[in-house]
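Work Package 3 committed the consortium to producing structural models of liganded targets before the mid-term review. Because experimental data for this complex are still outstanding, the team generated a predictive model from sequence and the ligand definition alone, so that downstream docking and mutagenesis planning could proceed in parallel. The input record is reproduced below exactly as it was submitted to the modelling pipeline, together with the SMILES string for pyridoxal-5'-phosphate.
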Amino acid sequence: MPRVKPVLARALRKTPLLHLDVAHRGRVRRLGLKLEEHGPTGSVKDRSAVGLLQALHDERPLTPGAVVVESTSGNLGLALARLLPSIDCVFLAVVDLKTPHATRTTLTERGARVIVVDEPDGQGGYLLSRLRRVRELCDRNPGYRWPNQYENWASPDIHRRTTGPEITEQAGLDLGAVYVPVSTGGTLAGISAHLRRHRPDVAAVAVDVRGSLAVAGSAGRRLLPGIGASRPSTFLHGSHGYDRAVHVDDIEAIAVCRILAEDVGLVLGGSSGCAVRALLTDLENGRMDDRLAVCLAADGGGKYRDTLYCDDWATEQGIVKEITAAVEQLRREGLFFDRKHQEH
Ligand SMILES: Cc1ncc(COP(=O)(O)O)c(C=O)c1O
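The resulting structure, written out as tokens with the ligand in place, is given here.
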């Protein structure tokens, strides 16, 4: 039997902080991108998966053959699908129609059983339908183990112990704010707990999309996987888990992603575009001082090449003109990224 604790303890790696210059509305600012795509399965959820499985194992040992079931928009699924076979457990992933096809294929290739939920939840997404399906599965199969990333404080805790300290160490004393895209809110809550304790001068900014209920807001259509939720975050209560929230338009986030790719060849996921867009909004509104802002780039854009970066997909969604207009508008405002500094 594999020794679960050492396997999980070895499963994480530090990710780089990339420094860019960003020009917008006649001013040039420095920006740090915490590139979580350099994690073992390419997203910030590699960390959450380790924290959740450690907690599950502490509660009751994960023995060979155990079935772990989880609702995921994709990235947590990829992380669990890597870890669970290495401790001889079986993974049952409950995903939905917004989960990228590349992600579904990888899950299956890694031996996960995949259930695709296709029933919208009436709140702009599929989350509530996915959670209903997980509960049904657990009721019918009492032996199934459910980490429950939406309510398990092991998720914020691993970000408090790893992501937060890495950011403050890499960014140094000049750090002024950290922008974190939110879905369960686990990543932000953990980073924010670290900042409150060790760097209370640094703002923890919640980045959500319009149409999401994760941090306030009202329900509506949402295009981007990974960010936003059909219910409020368990981990973020008003001033408890963050300093301020910025709601971002998903079309503008896609436009920022495309501009980043054009200017510096960095292809990131949609939630990273949201974080950078939120920073630009704060700069416009004078809510960000001269210190360094770090945006959490939760995943890379490889798996979104046939969606966010693809005009056929945009045409199918009826948003191709809107994206072009958003790119043109941001360019008129002088938006430009430059790869000035080295990674740390
Ligand atoms: C791409 C991406 N960005 C942001 C997040 C948000 O992370 P959290 O659920 O910790 O709020 C996720 C979570 O799945 C994600 O996959």
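Reviewers should note the following from the model. The mean pLDDT is 94. These observations will guide the Year 2 experiments.
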